[in-house]
Amino acid sequence: MAHLSLIVQSERRKKNWSCIDSMVANVYNCELVLSYIGYRL
Fold it and tell me: Which of 2, 9, 37, 38 has the fewest Cβ atoms surrounding its Cβ within 10 A?
């Protein structure tokens, strides 16, 4: 059972990291779009 809980913890950690990664990616894309709009204006 301890092994199973370790797997669950690592999966949860991965999920958190992917959530953070997608947030970072969204901010990065936002900045790219804003800089593109600013460049066009």
Answer: 2
DSSP alpha helix (H) spans, the chain: 2-40
Task: Give me the residue label for tokens 């779009």.
Answer: 33
Among 10, 33, 29, 31, which Cα is nearest to 21's?
29
Token pair for 4: 């199973």
Could you tell me the pTM of the whole model? 0.48
- pLDDT over 80 at 35, yes or no: yes
Q: Which two tokens stand for residue 9?
A: 């913890």
CA distance 14 to 19: 9
